[in-house]
Amino acid sequence: MLSRRRFLSHASAGAAGLYAATMVRTRFREQLAFAREMGIAPEEAINLANNENSLGPGDAVMDAIDSVIGPEGVIAGRYPFRFVGPLQEAIAEKWGVKPENVLIGAGSTQILVDCTHQYASREKALVGSLPTYEECFGYAALMGYRTKAVPLTADFRMDLDQTLHAVKGSGMLFYCNPNNPVATLVDPAEGKDFLNRALAVNGDLRILIDEAYIDYVTTPGHETMIPMAVRNPRLIVARTFSKAYGMAGLRVGYAIAHEDTVAELGEFHMGNSVSIPGLVAANAALERDKSDPDYLPNEKRRNDEARSFILKFFRDRGLDATDAQTNFIFTDVGMPVEQFQAACAQEGVRVGRPFPPLWTRCRISIGTMDEMQRAATAFAAVLDNAQKMAA
Amino acid sequence: MKTKRRSFLSLAAAGGNATNAAALHAISARGREAWEAENGFRGAPAFIPPPATDEVRISSNENPLGPGPAAVAALRGEYGSIMRYPMNARISGTDLRQRIGEMYGGKAANVVLAPGSSEILRNAVRVYTGPDRALVTGECSYENPIRTAEYFGAPVKAIPMTGGLSLDLEKMAGASIGAGLVFLCNPNNPTGTVHSLADVTDFVKFVKKESPYTAILLDEAYYDYVTHPSFDTGAELAMRHRDVFVGRTFSKAFGMAGLRVGYAFGQADTIARLAPLQLTFGTSILSIAAAMGSLEDPEYIRNEVKRNEAARRYTLDFFSNHGLDPVPSETNFVFVNIGRPAAEFRAACAERGIFVGRDFPPYEKTHARISIGTLDEMQRATAVFAEVLGLAATDNQQQ
What we know:
- The complex is a heterodimer of chains A (391) and B (399).
- Chain A has helices spanning 10-13, 15-32, 34-37, 59-69, 81-95, 107-119, 135-143, 160-166, 188-201, 226-231, 259-268, 276-291, 295-316, 337-346, 369-390, and strands at 46-48, 102-105, 126-130, 147-151, 172-176, 206-210, 235-240, 253-257, 328-332, 349-351, 361-365.
- By secondary structure, chain A is an alpha/beta fold.
- The longest helix of chain A is centred in the C-terminal third of the chain and has 22 residues, at 295-316.
- Chain A starts with 9 loop residues before the first helix and ends with a helix.
- Chain B is α/β, with parallel strands linked by helices.
- Chain B folds into 2 domains: 2-24 and 69-294, Aspartate Aminotransferase, domain 2, CATH 3.40.640.10; 32-60 and 298-398, Aspartate Aminotransferase, domain 1, CATH 3.90.1150.10.
- Chain B is globular.
- At the A-B interface, helix 2, helix 4, helix 5, strand 2 and helix 6 of A face helix 4, helix 5, helix 7 and helix 13 of B.
């Protein structure tokens, strides 16, 4: 218990360590804000930088938000705790679990931090692939936790064998599947077996399964690990309303886990972190899942069409893009990604930040088909220009 | 000022071991519902039914009217950005930080946002306290910092209140020497008392002189509701001193408890120490927009303060006229000696549709905290109080 109650200690981390850790988080934020700094108004730019759903959350959700706000916004004066229970119930109902299996966070970000805090430490490493989504590693760096980053295979997939070695003696595995930023999925036939083997080689290991992009997976046979997590106290599944549900701005995500694990995470978890509009919107989205079961599959199909279009664009130009299972692609751009990013920004298209150490690959989010067609024109101009310069 | 400084010094040794184990025990033993009332979900999920329309909720120091029209319009104006992360919204967190910074003669770098000021309090404790760097606070003050310190294993010096249920600034100053963080809740929740800017200035100067590495969090959640002329914000002190910072929230007078926006203001270096621990994009884009809009309509806040003052006056008079002894309040709640356990009073009121504040140790056997609703709500509430407390209902009609 005491081992989880860690201080952010200037003294023990050392001034230099704290400084470095702070820089990791600060730089991450600055890179996220890159396109904004280019001085492009959001309305004018095509934003393919942050894996958002350009279409938003849909009318049912917007109506629910507007109706809870009401003409005068009176409800906003009240603390949100009354709206938390109903959302937990709705999530539990969707997955056939109990409300005690659900922990709601300000985006899945809060869940990622809760888990990293609880299960990694200065002694017990955080393990994850390199690259992967940075939130857990950013928090670990800030706190001075041990980390082990496992390079990807040649085809940009998680290296399961090397990960199995790395989890020995470690505290937590961050298993982002599909993996952001490389867009690849662990082979459905191997995934569950890998998780079981990882749990077996290290009896103390906790595995955080980030399923932020699962609604966009088109590989047959892939399934959520929620049923497994509910049974096994050492697994946590993180989900978000920021992607397919189109409400990144409202900051709602959740964890599903065994109820003992939810209670354990609750010790550190900061409650009341989600706003009333966020809680109500998420609830309305789940309500729509019931009344309109085609909504999410349609969103998946829409994304798949736009994704196939832009994948073909890059592959036709001989640029190698990974097997994307997300609402973004990860592609070779044949030049330093910062150069590509800046050139695209000049064309009014915002693309993803660099993901070291893959310096010539770019993460490009999937917008609407219209946006992707316009973006492709911009990408063609950028790539052609670079070719001319080289010639 | 010289006298005060000497008296601070003379108390330094005595204040050092003033941890109040009894208070801590009582707080940790508090019921789940009470915890949730101000802190939301923790651990085991809770199910609280939606409010009935005839209920009077005067338990969480909320503004019963919610935000003003400018805030609501700004919130609606941001609907089109809901799919965007906060840095891509029309109004970003940086825009709001810049706007707030300018209010105090600073910049965006002087401000860190949070989903409610709770995160500011929590991260202040995480950054500035440790096993050998205590938290100094009042024995009957907002408990969030104590809970955080307990969780992380930092010692807590909870200094007993004065006879008038104010924070004992002199004893707190003494206890602050060598401490990690002082939590100075001004006005103080739950007692409603306030300290003048002059006294707070003396306090800060003393602590920073005698114990330069001790941080001070001036929690001004109820700043807007204060009507006492000697009170003012400690923002200038925060700008002048390293590791001194002001915590504010949009949850009280601004009527946005449901939107989760708070912030800390201080020197850029101080804010840079707090910022790394904040949740990434903890505050929603609608909330950022609403906060931004609310700052363009100071008239709404002035009216809310007047409205609150009238309902507060009515409530304080009700108790005084019945021979009870409410603490003079500078906030949107009153703390009153009802001469019986708060739990009993709370349960009896709840049966009649009136919901009042939780237990506040070490006064939970005698005092209740009652938030200020609308005047109409307070009239309904006081009728129930008269019934529950066995008070004659006539006196109040005369005031």
